[in-house]
Design goal:
Chain lengths: 253, 396
Amino acid sequence: MNKIMISGLIVLLLSPGLYLQELTGEDIVQKVNDLFNVESGYAKAKMTIVTTSGQKRTFIYESWSKNKGEKNLVRYLEPRRVKGQATLMLNNADDIWMYFPRTQRVRKLASHAKKQKMQGSDFSYEDMGSGDAFINDFSPKRLKDEKMEGYDCYKLELTRKPDSDVTYSRLIMWVIKENFVPVVIDYYDEDDPTLQEKRLVESDIRVIDNIPTAMKVVMYNKNDNTQTELELLEVKYNITLADSMFTERGLKK
Amino acid sequence: MKKWLSALVFFSLSLSANAAQDSVELFGYFESQAMGADIKNEFLLLYSNKLRVDLKSSLSEKVTFAANFDYITFHGKTEWNILDFLPSDVTAEVPAGMESFYVLPFSDRHFLDNAYIKLSFKYFDLTVGKQQISLGTGYVWNPTDVFNIKELFDPTYEQPGHNALRLDVPLGSMYTLTTLFSPEDTWKNSAKLIQLRGRISHFDYSLTGIEKVWRFHDYTRFDFVNMNFLELPGKRQLLGASTAGELLGLGVWAEYAYNWMENSEDFYELVVGTDYTFNFQTYMMIEYYRNTLGKTDYEQYNLNDWMRMIALEQKAISRDQIYVFIQHPATDLLSVGISTIYSISDNSFALVPTLNYSFSDNVEIFAYLNFNLGKEGKVFAKNMGNGGMIRARVYF
């Protein structure tokens, strides 16, 4: 998950002459992937789940990321029920550990845990685009450009690769031409590529430290009629983080 | 005396709070719980209320103080006659006139569960005081954990604190060396532990050596001086290993410990487990446990076996067991599950449907039912009492 991307931290790495050439689907996905993987970052975010019955559950967490998302640490601050719970992901989320402060136990999780919902939200850890998921798990195809959420966008279809066990059969992604922020992503059913399961919408895009940042991300679950909103409360980019933070010792702090 | 002690603790906590007002956190939970069991055609009920107050103070980057104070009250059926649960051939072993000693009392209590200072230096962490000790990779059973025994039906419940001095030395980013000393009345009787943990590829590994006195009892003899069953302490030396990682997309873990006993037969314990989350969000776990201290046939179970298991002195009386757990998020706030614990050695099993409900941000409800489906004399015999538990917990 919890690449800083989770919070919609999108980095704009403009290269000269980028717009002078026609980009392929692979080029655009690579750009999106690069944007997600900032060198290092910190975010404090609020996650609000709106359930089927209209009830709300709110979580606040901090996350730290290093080496372009290769190392990630997430620690929950609120509510009290989960305060102190932390997740450490190394090697682009191939290695995951969870820390439970009530039992002071660290548990190593297999990568299938990424399929689980984050604290019962509409985000699975997988949705958060751990590592190079868009590149490694999907084959991109560029479709006809479209306007989406008021932005001129590239439209892409990402189809699951045969050897991937990712939960979605395909994704449709609208990427803002100006800054490569994927403003909308549609997620399709594992078995039925025509059945849309979820839609992710990024908004309130601000430039922070010269980096375009979506301050709000909402995941709409079409099946359950629920939604989860992620709101960035604080963001820092390219900060110095010690490697010791991303160890079992750092996880238990 | 108790009032003075409470006042002293409160005063100490107040002082600590004043010393570091900005960094002191007070939190905890209140939980109310009801348990029921059908024993001899009567449904018995035990209620409890627990207040746990946690205090954590980071006095500086290098110094952390943490403590928990528990206050628990019990109501309803607060004295359970253990002999009601046991098969008639076992209760026949009870010495004449001693029947009244086999009562499990639930008395109100309050105690300092954990209270420790953690000093963090560049090259090591030193933790001194009462602290939780969590060892091993097993979910229900932990062969390398000689300090705690988990409840079979509620294995994730927090474990009690143990008085100890613990040193953790990181060796690079991949390895940690831990030594632990848990003092008793003499050096010889004190527990000592050394553990090396590390990571190779996508697997975590640990090697553990422990020496500890095992204070189990002879439940056929009574010590009238100490007014308890006769204690039979014996030194236990353990060498164990554990691992956790991923194989073919499955989560896998294993834990093994060989025990050299001073006064009884040596034995070993083994846990092997696997888990998986399906794309439709259902989570499944299987864990196998072998304990050669356990018996291979239920007709071998004796009074001491049963009592030691009920008193949580030993982890199992049957040699081989399997735990299977399946959980599915029924809604965004409700998870339902079912676990089965099957005793391979005596061919009995328990079914335990579970429910977790998030009532609000800081209120959760957990409930289970337990159905024992073995014949009398087996580990999961019907006469062990079918029943259940419901618990509401409010965090603050």
